[in-house]
């Protein structure tokens, strides 16, 4: 239910045709995609550099579409137009301990890729222009820190994001199937994977919630089989998800019967 | 300060040195006290060492509380439609810095409660109503809008004794224009308190009860990330590592002494001109303000908020004339402002009641590892802090008297103390107490629902009412459960 | 005489359809905040619905007040089948209007829809695994099936992606509309029987013992049909295995399958989700064309609640940039934007077990739930410990906190909590303080903690940049 911006083109992004419920609009679709629900929207960035196909979720060059860039395949993109694409991970190794760089065997530089959307917003206005991109000098399976020393530079052209003057994503950026390609297959798999708690307003987790008398909440797990919303409050218990327990819906239940067993939640309670 | 306290603080008069002479050190005074005890004479006729330590902590708590509210008030007065937009970033920075200092005072206040708990003293959130004088503070505590004069008072009060030079002289002059007589430094209170607690004769080892830790406030629960400037320094106007909320649990004498020393260092009792001190932060604002005022005679970054606004149980028949002096109060007589001011007082009371309650919740209700009623109380307290902020921000846009122009004189948050901070003994009755206050608030909000019809403030009335309704629902289930548990089987 | 169109456009430019096997799509509804209940759930009320006669392609009725149900009486989920409207304008400065058959010659309208599901291709890299449905150019009003074809399918097999229909404008309902109805949400596979990770068949007998000399193998009840050819001349999707590698999806191994010696072994399942384009050409004296995008995803299971960060936020940032320009918003609008973000925060929190997600010990052992706390340890070897103090994270407490913040914003006070909101470049900060920033406990697209888009955060920053209450100033541009 986003507020309509003054800009006409932006308003058209939220155009609600007659007869269309709000769930048809992009503001009902999550975008902290990992991998996502309606889309893995990260796929929109794969072709942002003309000549390259980047990994949708990483600064890794998957493929060069132009032979000139073949040498960049497998390399990591560290800087775009002067801005870092990665950052360092810090935190304590022991509870209460000092914050240190959190390097691991798989990540010796303690480096982490910052998602495309917020990174690239700085260069999208340079569509059609070349920007300086700094890559690792050679292919790298591991992530590299921002000031990694062995680098090479390439000038890459930024693709326009929208068709000019319109609110539709440019043809050359995304082809049919691209926006959903890295989602779970089948999608029901994702509903069973625990990471879904992160989009509770689209894929609920804690339902039929009411105060329990100790000042705390009592509710049920959306994945719990055969739950009854009129269970007395003191008997409602949220059990943390367990993919092997019979208490919860199984993968098979979802593949076969998702329509029947998953329930719509309205005002926080089971409805249909 | 009210007489119950003041009569035990007369020794401070004895301690105040003639101007220019160094004051006797607290250590020396404490050593003298210890000797007194060793000789089996009394410190103050009605105290032993342990009681005296507790008494000093209560005095410190009053001062922290008074300062915190004073600074909050000052910060809330900043801004307004009369301020030239070109100053907006600067004023915002100042507001953020002062609020940061107020938050640190809150941290001090909470930490002092932890020390009280540690030595089995009762907790204390009490203070006098504004304006009031205190033996340990150079000026009356008063709620006033931020001006160069009031700023000078804050700078001066927080300044180390060693501060000197032309700026120091100017600030002292400006600040002490209204002050007279002997001036005491809050640094002395802190040193005395620390030395007393540190003294093994005055306060024995067995007075320090590590088993009280579950009853203390932890940084995790209260600090919420306000450390090293991680929060509350968005404009980067304040020094980089501020605000730094100091809240810790203490389990030994050494821990208590260390905590109190750090509190003293951060705030008032700072012998250092360190960049992060309250003194330095206030001084930076003062100097910049003066600079601007020299070229812009109209520069006035705070709203025309009256001094010490109060609200009476009924509307005054005639609108009283407005007083500017720091020692007087101003009674609200605008009918709408009247209700908002009462709502403010109820929220402030709920906040204080919550604080009293949360330090007394014990047993299974006070789990330190799982959500519990105590967690609910902490959330309730923070909720009230947000409401205090919200209602205060409305009050400073409203007139003092009916038909008054808020751009000439406007109201402010009264922060009137409740008649009592005591809470009932039984846990279930404490929750009833909270519910009573929520019902009182609801009555005020119902009144406002009608009076604010068509006003831009109506949305807020509805939001508060909704939020309160949710809280009442939770509390009612708790009361029902606790009543049931208390039922004696027949 | 008809004016000449300068430009046409299909709206919305990106529409989302949602799967369901009921023949009746869900009726249109509105979801709105009740001003008298500002902290409550948004209310779902009936909105203008369009009923289409599938046979003729005409609108049979446009009506109000229909009952809103998300499943039909048989318990089937009612799909969301969006309408895409053809808009146009006659001059650059003219307003856009929803075109009718009076504005253009409908016979000159040509449509083409291309949809794809390339989930298998993304894993295997085999272009023959791409499933594409292409309607070709058409002008009729048939309820047209969009069948996904794939070189690695068995002969004659398709994967249905749903239906499209060019709605026939009539005198009573003259507007130009197009409709996409998504598929039924089925699962398709590669084999009628279940295989184990080693490629042999799963026994249906207990204790793996033959019965009467015959070894019954397990029928795969998960799939509706076998479409994929995993035999000779076919593809490698069934049995495809992945373990680690920089080119894999992140997260990896998220297809239906089982654990094998070399990694996660795919069961060869496919679903009927898809995304693609709808194209239209007005082939008159001058050709005008436009296209829009469509996707098919799962139902929105909490239709009265909205996510904190959405595809719209990404699109708005891509379109308008991350910086807020002086004339973009008034103070009141910025305040409302800030409120909306906080509202969505408590809409999400309401449906989340915050106690679990905080990393509290909720069972006999620590770390029994999948949480960001576990991810921090797995990804970065950070100490495993709860994010916030364990005592303050009950769902009702967290909800109350956010609702109080929302309430304070509705007082008109500028937001004061900006420094609490994580910046996009702070995702590497897993310190105690860093993890406690907002939004908390949730995952970002890069796998670490959620951040808002930069533009979202800038809205809050700009909202905070004032010295007045929105209740005391008139609405005006900054």
Give an account of the 3D structure:
Chain A contains 4 helices and 14 strands. Chain A is mainly beta and about 270 residues long. Chain A has a 4-stranded antiparallel β-sheet, with no helix packed on it. Chain A has a two-stranded antiparallel sheet with strand order 1-2. Chain A is globular and about 65 Å long. The mean pLDDT of chain A is about 95. Chain B has helices at about 5, 10-15, 25-40, 50-75, 90-120, 150-160, 165-175, 185-200, 220, 255-265, 280-295, 335-360, 375-395, 425-450, 460-485; strands at about 310, 330. In chain B, helix 12 (about 335-360) packs antiparallel against helix 13. Chain B folds into 2 domains: about 5-295, Ferritin (Up-down Bundle), CATH 1.20.1260.10; about 310-485, Ferritin, core subunit, four-helix bundle (Ferritin), CATH 1.20.1260. With about 500 residues, chain B is an all-alpha fold. Chain B is globular and about 65 Å long. Helix content of chain B is about 50%, strand content about 0%. Chain C has about 475 residues and is α+β, with helices and mostly antiparallel strands. Chain C folds into 3 domains: about 5-185 and about 275-295, no CATH class; about 185-270, no CATH class; about 310-465, no CATH class. Chain C contains 8 helices and 21 strands. In chain C, the strands form 6 sheets. In chain C, strands 1, 7, 8, 11, 12 and 13 form a 6-stranded antiparallel β-sheet that branches. In chain C, strand 20 and strand 21 (about 285-295) form a beta hairpin. In chain C, helix 3 packs antiparallel against helix 6 (about 395-410) and helix 3 packs across helix 8. The two termini of chain C are about 45 Å apart. The mean pLDDT of chain C is about 95. Chains in contact: A-B, A-C, B-C. Chains A and C meet through helix 1, strand 6, helix 2, helix 3 and strand 11 of A and strand 1, strand 2, strand 3, strand 7 and strand 9 of C.
* CATH superfamily descriptor of the largest domain in chain B: Ferritin, core subunit, four-helix bundle
Percentage of residues in helical conformation of chain C: 10-25%
Oligomer: heterotrimer
Residue share in β-strands of chain B: under 5%
- Low-pLDDT parts of chain B are none
Query: What is the average of the pLDDT values of chain B?
Result: 86
What structural class is derived from the secondary structure elements of chain B?
mainly alpha
Q: How large a portion of the residues of chain C is in β-strands, by DSSP E?
A: 15-25%
Report the span from N to C terminus of chain C.
Answer: 45 Å
Number of strands of chain C: 21
The domain count of chain B comes to: 2
């Amino acid at each position: 239910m986003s507020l309509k911006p003054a800009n006409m083109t932006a308003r058209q992004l939220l155009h609600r045709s007659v007869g269309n419920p709000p769930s048809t609009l992009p503001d009902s679709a999550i975008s902290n995609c990992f991998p996502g629900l309606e889309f893995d929207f990260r796929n929109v960035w794969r072709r942002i550099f003309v000549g390259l196909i980047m990994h949708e979720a990483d600064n890794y060059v998957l493929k060069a579409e132009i032979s000139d860039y073949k040498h960049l395949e497998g390399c990591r993109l560290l800087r775009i137009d002067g801005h870092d694409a990665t950052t360092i991970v810090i935190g304590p190794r022991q509870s209460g301990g000092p914050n240190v760089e959190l390097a691991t065997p798989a990540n010796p530089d303690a480096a982490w890729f910052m998602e495309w959307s917020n990174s690239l917003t700085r260069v999208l206005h340079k569509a059609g222009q070349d920007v300086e991109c700094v890559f690792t000098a050679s292919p790298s399976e591991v992530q590299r820190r921002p000031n990694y020393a062995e680098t090479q530079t390439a000038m890459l052209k930024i693709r326009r994001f929208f068709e000019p003057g319109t609110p539709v994503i440019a043809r050359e950026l995304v082809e049919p199937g691209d926006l959903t390609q890295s989602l779970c297959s089948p999608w029901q798999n994702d509903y069973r994977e625990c990471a879904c708690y992160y989009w509770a307003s689209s894929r609920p987790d804690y339902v039929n919630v009411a105060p329990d008398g100790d000042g705390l909440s009592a509710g049920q797990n959306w994945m719990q089989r055969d739950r009854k919303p009129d269970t007395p409050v003191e008997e409602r218990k949220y059990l943390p998800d367990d993919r092997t327990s019979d208490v919860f819906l199984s993968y098979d239940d979802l593949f076969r019967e998702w329509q029947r067993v998953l329930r719509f939640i309205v005002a926080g309670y089971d409805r249909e | 300060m009210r007489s119950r306290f003041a009569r035990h603080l007369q020794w401070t008069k004895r301690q105040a040195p003639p101007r220019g002479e160094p004051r006797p050190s607290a250590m020396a005074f404490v050593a003298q006290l210890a000797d007194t005890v060793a000789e089996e004479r009394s410190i103050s006729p009605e105290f032993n060492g342990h009681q005296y330590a507790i008494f000093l902590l209560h005095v410190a708590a009053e001062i922290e509380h008074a300062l915190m509210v004073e600074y909050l008030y000052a910060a809330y007065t900043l801004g307004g439609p009369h301020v030239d937009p070109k100053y907006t970033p600067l004023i915002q920075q100042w507001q953020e810095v002062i609020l940061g200092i107020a938050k640190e005072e809150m941290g001090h206040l909470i930490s002092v409660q932890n020390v009280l708990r540690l030595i089995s003293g009762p907790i204390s959130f009490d203070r006098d109503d504004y304006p009031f004088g205190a033996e340990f503070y150079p000026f009356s505590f008063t709620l006033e809008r931020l001006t160069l004069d009031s700023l000078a008072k804050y700078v001066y009060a927080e300044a180390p004794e060693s501060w000197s030079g032309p700026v120091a002289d100017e600030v002292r002059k400006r600040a002490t224009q209204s002050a007279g007589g002997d001036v005491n430094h809050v640094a002395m209170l802190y040193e005395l308190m620390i030395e007393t607690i540190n003294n093994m004769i005055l306060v024995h080892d067995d007075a320090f009860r590590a088993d009280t830790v579950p009853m203390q406030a932890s940084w995790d629960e209260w600090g919420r990330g306000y450390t090293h400037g991680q929060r509350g320094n968005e404009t980067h106007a304040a020094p980089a590592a501020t605000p730094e909320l100091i809240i810790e649990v203490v389990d030994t004498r050494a821990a208590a002494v260390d905590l109190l020393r750090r509190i003293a260092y951060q705030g008032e009792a700072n012998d250092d001109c360190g960049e992060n001190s309250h003194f330095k932060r206030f001084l930076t604002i003062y100097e910049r303000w003066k600079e601007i005022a020299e070229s812009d005679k109209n520069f006035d970054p705070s709203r025309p908020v009256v001094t010490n606004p109060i609200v009476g149980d009924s509307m005054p028949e005639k609108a009283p004339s407005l007083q500017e002096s720091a020692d007087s109060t101003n009674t609200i007589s605008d009918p709408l402002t009247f209700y908002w001011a009462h709502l403010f007082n109820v929220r402030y009371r709920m906040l204080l009641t919550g604080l009293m309650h949360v330090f007394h919740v014990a047993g299974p209700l006070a789990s330190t590892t799982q959500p519990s009623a105590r967690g609910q109380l902490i959330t309730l307290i923070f909720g009230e802090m947000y409401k205090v902020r919200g209602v205060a921000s409305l009050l400073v846009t409203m007139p003092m008297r009916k038909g008054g122009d808020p751009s000439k004189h406007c109201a402010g948050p009264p922060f009137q103390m409740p008649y009592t901070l005591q809470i009932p003994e039984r846990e279930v009755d404490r929750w009833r107490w909270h519910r009573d206050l929520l019902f009182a608030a609801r009555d005020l909000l119902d009144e406002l629902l009608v009076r604010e019809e068509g006003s831009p403030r109506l949305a807020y009335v509805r939001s508060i009412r909704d939020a309160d309704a949710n809280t009442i629902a939770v509390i009612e289930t708790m009361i029902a459960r606790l009543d049931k548990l208390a039922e004696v089987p027949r | 005489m008809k004016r000449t169109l300068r430009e046409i456009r299909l709206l919305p430019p990106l529409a989302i359809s949602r799967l369901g096997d009921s023949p009746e799509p869900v009726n249109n509804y509105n979801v709105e905040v009740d001003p008298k209940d500002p902290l409550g759930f948004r209310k779902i009320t009936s909105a203008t619905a369009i009923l289409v006669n599938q046979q003729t392609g005409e609108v049979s009725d446009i009506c109000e007040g229909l009952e809103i149900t998300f499943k039909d009486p048989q318990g089937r989920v009612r799909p969301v089948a969006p309408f895409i409207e053809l808009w146009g304008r006659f001059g650059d400065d003219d307003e856009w209007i929803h075109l009718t058959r009076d504005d253009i010659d409908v016979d000159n309208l040509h449509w083409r829809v291309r949809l794809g599901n390339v989930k298998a291709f993304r894993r295997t890299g085999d272009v023959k695994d791409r499933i594409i449905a292409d309607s070709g150019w058409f002008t009729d009003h048939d309820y047209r099936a969009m069948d996904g074809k794939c070189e690695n399918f068995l002969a004659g097999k398709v994967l249905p992606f749903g239906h499209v229909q060019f709605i026939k404008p009539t005198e009573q309902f003259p507007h130009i509309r197009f409709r996409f109805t998504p598929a039924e949400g089925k699962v398709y596979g590669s084999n009628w029987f279940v295989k184990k990770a080693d490629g042999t068949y799963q026994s249906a007998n207990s204790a793996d013992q033959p019965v009467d000399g015959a070894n019954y193998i397990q029928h795969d009840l998960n799939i509706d049909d076998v479409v994929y050819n995993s035999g000779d001349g076919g593809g490698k999707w069934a049995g495809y295995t992945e373990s680690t590698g920089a080119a894999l999806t992140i997260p990896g191994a998220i297809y239906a399958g089982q654990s094998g010696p070399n990694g996660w072994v795919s069961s060869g399942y496919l679903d009927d989700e898809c995304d693609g384009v709808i194209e239209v050409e007005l082939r008159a004296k001058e050709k005008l064309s436009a296209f829009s995008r469509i996707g098919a995803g799962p139902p929105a299971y909490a239709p009265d609640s909205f996510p904190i960060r959405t595809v719209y936020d990404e699109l708005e940032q891509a379109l308008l940039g991350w910086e807020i320009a002086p004339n973009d918003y008034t103070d009141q609008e910025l305040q409302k934007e800030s409120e909306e973000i906080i509202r969505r925060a408590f809409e999400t929190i309401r449906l989340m077990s915050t106690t679990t997600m905080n990393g509290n010990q909720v069972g006999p052992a620590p770390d029994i739930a999948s949480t960001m706390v576990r991810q921090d340890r797995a990804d970065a070897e950070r100490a495993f410990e709860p994010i916030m103090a364990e005592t303050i994270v009950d769902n009702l407490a967290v909800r109350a906190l956010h609702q109080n913040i929302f309430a304070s914003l509705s007082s008109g006070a500028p937001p004061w909590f900006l420094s609490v909101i994580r910046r996009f470049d702070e995702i590497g900060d897993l310190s105690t303080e860093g993890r406690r920033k907002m939004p908390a406990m949730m995952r970002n697209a890069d796998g670490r903690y959620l951040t808002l888009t930069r533009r979202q955060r800038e809205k809050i920053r700009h909202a905070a940049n004032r010295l007045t209450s929105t209740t005391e100033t008139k609405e005006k541009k900054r």
